[in-house]
Amino acid sequence: MTGQPSSAVLVLTFCIAEALLMAGFALVPSLLPQLSQRWSLSATAGGWLGGIFFLGYILAVPVLVSLTDRIDARRIYLAGATVSALALAGFASFADGLASGLCWWWLAGLGLAGTYMPGLKALTDRLPVAVQARGTAFYTATFGVGAGLSYLWIGLLQERLPWPGLFAIAAVCAALSMLLVWCGIAPGKPLAAMPVGHSHWRSVLGDRRILAFCGGYFGHNWELFGFRAWLVAYLTWTHARTPDSWTAMPGLIAALATFLAVPASILGNEGAQHWGRGRWLQAVMPLSGVLAVVVGFSGSQSGLVLVPLLLVYAASMNLDSAALTAGLLTETSPEKRGTALALYSSIGFAGACIGPIAFGVALDAFGRSLQAGWTAAFLTLACGVGFGRWAIGRIGAAPPPTHVS
């Protein structure tokens, strides 16, 4: 190719590639009841299997995303998508217990580290400044589209195909994502950035506004990925206890809950632009925390009440997603944006790792077969977003940014 496509085509290409890459995202959460039974896993072990994906992410993302300040992020995306395809194929072929499952799912998380934020950086590097915030909102919202489609197709096919076949299909989708970016996005020139050394990291770590967004993202991901890791298992438990047509297809409900992230995330960013980012985030994060508590104490309700409540909660926890990421990007100067994204992703996805584990620990502590266990588990989600709300409140105490992009 001789040049880059239009802004709309750029956004569409990266969003489709991300959705393909996300095809395997819900494999472990959707198959957790089956894998737990097959591999005799406790709730804590199941939480580790869900959370290890994000441990792989946070170990790799500081290096991979900070590199995008020096080299074209497209190259990192291509490598990350290749790793994802290999990890999913490896899980399909060789995972036969907790230890091997942890290894391959960890590697899949490393692949996400090479695609999600590097893909965002590759996109924003190619977009005009005027459309970067909205491009970011659509890209981050596509994470929810991809995750929702992942829950949907897995839920529809897991009764028809053995679980290794599902991992193999996801591996093919990851390979297609790599090919789409390779063929559809032209290589770009690296930014004229200062070397990414100790002084560069110090400038990011010393920016209290960046740290506030990182803390908010930590709490958001704790809640979001703790919820997504255990939603199918929770619906499976409620249906086994009290069969109900509303809970008979947990994969479909999980898909719908995840799809709601898309309009919620986009509308959340528009709300932040209209009412002010700090004010918006400080309002919507406590809302999802309250709903986490309400859901936790609603397990005895019928599916007619519980499922709509879960869907409202799922939407509420995404009202801050794009607003947080767009806030970080627009308030960070271009020459250190990659390093800021690396820190943001590392801290944020540490929350994604902790959320499923904390949920599983609470289940084991209070009883996986008891309502008290699930109530305690949902309260851990409220704790996560509560921390995020506290962190984002530090924005008001931080000095304004010296650069506006």
Automatic annotation (TrEMBL):
The keyword Chaperone does not apply. PANTHER family: CHLORAMPHENICOL EFFLUX PUMP RV0191, PURINE EFFLUX PUMP PBUE. The chain crosses the membrane at residues 7-28, 48-67, 76-98, 104-124, 136-154, 166-185, 249-268, 341-366, 372-392. GO terms for cellular component: plasma membrane. Residues 10-405 form the Major facilitator superfamily (MFS) profile domain. It comes from Candidatus Accumulibacter cognatus. GO terms for molecular function: transmembrane transporter activity. SUPFAM superfamilies: MFS general substrate transporter. This is MFS transporter, aromatic acid:H+ symporter (AAHS) family. It is a multi-pass membrane protein.
